[in-house]
Every structure is written in C-alpha cells, then in structure tokens.
Design a protein that fits this description.
The chain is built from 18 helices and 16 strands. The chain is an alpha/beta fold. The longest helix has 52 residues.
Length: 505
C-alpha cells in the first residue's frame, strides 16, 4: 500500500480549526483512496491521538527572515552534498522519516507568503528533502501570496516548479502561480467537504485533557447565527461588529453563537477573547462556544441559518452546506482568501471591506443575506453538484500522481480537472453592493502595497538588526572600558607624562 507523508499545520499549541480541518480532510481523502497516511506534526503524540494516523515531527523554522533563509540554504547545501548539517539537526531526522514513505502531500493552507514566511520555508525544505529522495510531491489547496518579498517569491517558485502537481484555491492564487511560471489547478479549499464528527447525535462530550479542544458542544435548540471573528481592531471596530449583530437580531430574533477558530483550549484568548469583548458590547443574546475540534466547529457552522465571519473557514464550511455567509475582510491578505472562497461558489459580492463596517454597509448586507437565504440555499445547492464533482476529480488526480500511476494523464483530461466548472453567481442587489465595490477599489491596493513594503522592510531589518546590535554592544563595552578605574588612571598618568615632557622641553 502506498504510504504518503502529509504536511499540514497540525499539532500546534494554539489550536487552529482551519489548519486542523485541512489536515483532517486531506487524510480522509487519501485514506478513502487506499493510502496509508503519516502526518508531519509539531506535536506527533497529540496528532496521532486525534487523527488515528501515525505522526512524526516536522521542521520548525525561525521567524526571522534572515535566519530562515540561512537555515534553508544550509539544508539545500547538505542535500546537494556541498556541506553537512550537525547530526542533531532535525532536518536529518525528517529525511530518515521521508525515506520510509512513497510520496509527500503538502496539504492546503494560507501560509505560502511572507506574512508566514517560516511556514513557507518549512514547506520548501520538506519538498526539497522529498525531491532529493526521489519522492513525488503534490501541493494541494493553497493560497499563494499575495504578499511576497522578492526572495520569498523565488523560494516559492522553486518549490512549486519542483512539484508534480500544484493546486490553488482562488483565482488570485492561480494568477500568482502563472507569474511564477507554475501550471496550477484552481480548485477548492481542502476542507470544503470535511466529514462531520463520528459521534452519536445528542451524545455526551468525551472527557479528555484540558489542553485539548472540546470534541462536542451542543448548540442552542432552534435556529441561530454562527459568528467567528479573529482578534484585532480597536474599540470602534468591536463596537461596530456588536451593533451590526444587534441589528441583525432585530430582524431575525436569533441568538448569535460565537464559534472560535483559534486559541489555546480552555483559555479566553485569541478568538474567544475577541468574542467575549464583542458579546459584552451587545444588547442581544450571545452564546460563547469554547474552542472545539475542527469537525465539530464545521458541524456547528453548517447548522446555522446564517454565518458572519472575518475568518476563512467558517465561509468554507457554510457554503458547501448551502448556508448563506457574509464575510468582512480587514486587509488584502484576508480579502484574497475570503473573496476567493466565496467566488468559488458565486457568492463573492457578500465579502465586504473594512471600510464597509464604518459606512454601515455591513448592516445592509447582513439584512439582505438573511432575506435571501432561501434563494441562496437554492443557488448553493445547484453549485454543489459541480463543486462535489470538481473536488472528486482533484483528489483522484492527486491519488494518481502520488502513486506515479500511468493513468494520471487520463485523469488530467477529465472534465473539470484543469479548474472549477463554470457556475452561476448570486449578485448583491442593494445599494450597499455598488458602494462596497468603490470602497474595495480604493482600499485593497493601498492595503496590499503597505503589506508588501512592510514585508520587505522586515526582511532588511532582520539582516541589519544583528549588525546594529553588535555595534551597540561594542559601543557599550567601549564606554564601560573608558570609564573604568584602570583606564582613568592610565589616562591620568599619560596626561602627567605629557605635561612633564612639555616642561622639560
């Protein structure tokens, strides 16, 4: 049986629903097609317990651009036989693990950019090690960029060009792939059809370590609005979100159920902390859910009547279940992902920019989404037929490449294999939609430019900061030495000697 190593951002101390969901979904799809899966994780024991698949340690790269570039160079040099790594280097242990598998799948994510450069370099290193061993590499369901330094773009291009198959999850990422000289397949997020929890309906929560997410959480009886917000923004931002939810409740009479996607289980931090702050500003019912496992978060989201989010995967879970979603993207990176996810289902008009919150356009969009939820469900049901087929074709193609199957060419030629099947769009009708288009036209180019400049500046500073620190240490040491009693005595003697010599002269 073909053994495949799957790299996803799993086993992190801070649980991330979307990252775990993509890892779970990739493992599900491969297992369903007869593969043995080995997961690369930051916490192999935790991952093995949660997934039911063997897990081994992945590489962890430094956050500093200068340091991660240096580490990747040293790994590449070792693989090329130009130098050697210390015997204790984790890259050598990983190479031994990858030598025992037949192929590598880099599962989906939003980490192939300079914003999360240490994750980009981790993937580049894993792909390089796999290639050195002659193992096929497939990259699935990725967002590329949109923020990339010149060096990171080169690293990404080399990584993708060396893969046997590359899949991206948005039209913007497909465009970036073309710019990098990569023939990528535009498809869906890997977790679009993540299976529901294998737990009996109404069953009690499984008791487990407090450091793990709660596996099951009973939502309020009846209908509800599912809400997920990433932390960030000022008091006006949180007040604006609270007011929008209060106004939505006046129309729906449904409670807002806050479902965090990121945080340390058991803590009120990250999303849960943001949710608590917003709920405290609301005048209408709000239910605060703890961090739950990815499948459970998907189930709760799919069970809602409407989804409101600044995060990516709530929209993914909602749309594949026929649930209307309205997303607020606060900057260029989140917009590329959210708009891409919604665009794949013809719902991109319902992604609003940050200024839309200040202009009260979010309120109007939410009310329209609620009033048109039956129409939206019908639209999404029609699109679902195409997207289910597209996803199946993609994973069949992945399986063929991972097996180095000679029938891969036939799979590639199947309908929908080179992209998503055409489908209808559901356009926003209110005046808010035209106003949002104009806001978006002004806001996101500025946001993207600012992010790119910041990334380049961070890279430069990562190289120059150690030099400045060393200079400052030398300056401090010099001042300390200059002020010491020994130096002061020597200077005094030198001054006296100079005066004596001038007197003798």
């Amino acid at each position: 049986m073909t053994r495949v190593a799957v790299l996803a951002d799993v086993g992190q101390h801070v649980y991330h629903v979307g990252d775990e969901a993509m890892g779970l979904a990739a493992a599900d799809e491969l297992t369903r097609r007869g593969f043995d899966v080995v997961l690369l994780s930051r916490d192999p024991d935790q991952t093995q317990d949660g997934y039911g698949h063997p897990a081994v340690s992945t590489l962890e790269f430094p956050w500093s651009p200068a340091e991660r570039e240096d580490y990747l160079r040293r790994i590449q040099a070792h693989l090329a036989g130009a130098s050697s790594l210390p015997e204790s280097d984790p890259a050598l242990a990983l190479r031994e693990q990858l030598a025992s598998v037949d192929a590598v799948l880099i599962a989906g994510g939003g980490n192939l950019n300079s914003r999360f450069g240490w994750l980009l370099y981790e993937r580049a290193a894993v792909a390089a090690i796999a290639r050195s061993l002659g193992k096929p590499v497939v990259v699935s369901g990725q967002t590329l960029g949109p923020v990339l330094t010149a060096r990171d773009a080169q690293v990404l291009a080399e990584m993708l060009q060396g893969a046997q198959l590359v899949g991206v999850r948005e039209s913007t990422s497909a465009g970036i792939a073309r710019e990098l000289g990569v023939d990528a397949v535009q498809g869906l997020d890997d977790a679009s059809f993540l299976a529901d929890p294998a737990l009996p309906d109404g069953g009690a929560a499984v008791q487990q370590d407090a450091a793990r997410p709660v596996p099951r959480y009973e939502a309020p009886a009846g209908d509800y609005v599912a809400v997920t917000f990433a932390p960030g923004g000022d008091e006006d931002f949180r007040s604006g979100l609270a007011a929008a939810l209060d106004q939505l409740h006046a129309k729906t009479q449904l409670p807002a159920v806050f479902i965090p996607h990121m945080g340390v289980p058991g803590n009120i931090d990250a999303d849960a902390g943001m949710h608590a702050e917003i709920a405290a500003l609301m005048d209408t019912p709000a239910v605060l859910v703890p961090v739950v496992e990815a499948r459970e978060a998907a189930r709760l989201t799919r069970g809602a009547s409407l989804v409101v989010t600044t995060r990516y995967h709530p929209a993914v879970f909602a749309l594949s279940a026929g649930v209307a979603a309205v997303a607020l993207s606060v900057e260029a990176y989140s917009d590329a992902r959210l708009r891409g996810a919604m665009e794949n289902w013809g719902m991109d008009d319902f992604v609003l920019s940050l200024p839309a919150l200040q202009e009260d356009l979010l309120d109007e969009a939410l009310l329209e989404a609620w009033e048109r939820r039956a129409e939206t469900a019908s639209h999404l049901k029609a699109v679902l037929e195409f997207r289910t087929r597209d996803a199946g074709i993609w994973w069949d193609r992945v399986a063929a490449v991972l097996q180095a199957d000679t029938s891969a060419a036939a799979v590639s030629a199947a309908p929908g294999a080179t992209g998503l099947s055409p489908s209808a769009r559901l356009e926003g009708r209110g005046e808010w939609a035209a106003a949002e288009t104009e806001l978006r036209r002004r806001f996101y180019p500025q946001s993207l430019l600012a992010a790119r400049l910041a990334a380049e500046d961070e890279r430069v500073q990562s190289f120059t900061a150690p030099i400045y620190r060393a200079l400052e240490e030398e300056r401090t040491a010099h001042q300390r030495l200059a002020g010491s009693r020994t130096v002061q005595t020597a200077l005094g003697l030198h001054s006296s000697l100079s005066k004596f010599r001038r007197h003798r002269a």
